[in-house]
Each structure stands twice: as C-alpha cells, then as structure tokens.
Design a protein that fits this description.
Layout (H helix, E strand, L loop, with lengths): L1 E8 L2 H15 L6 E5 L15 E2 L3 E2 L13 E8 L3 H10 L3 E2 L1
Antiparallel strand pairs: 1-5, 1-6, 2-5, 3-4
C-alpha cells in the first residue's frame, strides 16, 4: 500500500539533503519525491544555508536573479507504507517538521 509522507524544512539545502538521503540510503525512486514551496512566496527557505552564506559567516544580501528567503520548503514522498518510518526519520534528521 502506498502512502504519502511530507515534511517542511527551513532551508532548501536541508530539504535537498533529506531527498538525497531517501534516494541514496533507502533506494526510493527520485520520481516519487517532490520539493515545493509551502506557500506562494518561494522555495528558497526561511534561513540562510549553503550558497546563501559567504565565507561561512556573512549572509549574502538579495541580488537580482536570486530568490529572497521567505517561505518554508515542503518535501513529499510517495512510498510503500513499509518505508514510512524510514522516511519520517530521514526528514527529522535534516530538520523536517511533519506537514
């Protein structure tokens, strides 16, 4: 039986790390996983991470062509019910909150 598990993340990087964990560690088909903004704001997250931070300490300011940090990011995975606990655990590992 198939089940959809979803969580929201503060950063796009955390969401992408959770997806990679599902795909690489649990062999979940990448086509079964989606990343999307929670609202109409954007899909960059609400906190700086990765490329949003220069030199590991100073946050970049918004520039043309880059999204402003505004909304949370949602990851959904359509998986067999037997994988639900593993998906929820992976989401939690990267800061995901049940959606």
């Amino acid at each position: 039986m198939s089940k959809t598990i979803a969580a929201t993340f503060e950063t796009r990087r955390d969401a992408e790390m959770a997806v990679e964990h599902l795909v690489q560690e649990h062999k979940i088909d990448r086509k079964a996983v989606t990343i999307a903004p929670v609202s109409d704001e954007n899909s960059a997250g609400t906190e700086t991470a990765g490329a949003d931070v220069e030199d590991g300490r100073v946050a970049k300011t918004h520039t043309d062509g880059e999204p402003k940090l505004a909304g949370r990011v949602k990851v959904s995975a359509d998986v067999d019910s037997s994988l639900a606990d593993k998906v929820e655990s992976s989401f939690a590992t990267y800061g995901g909150k049940a959606a």
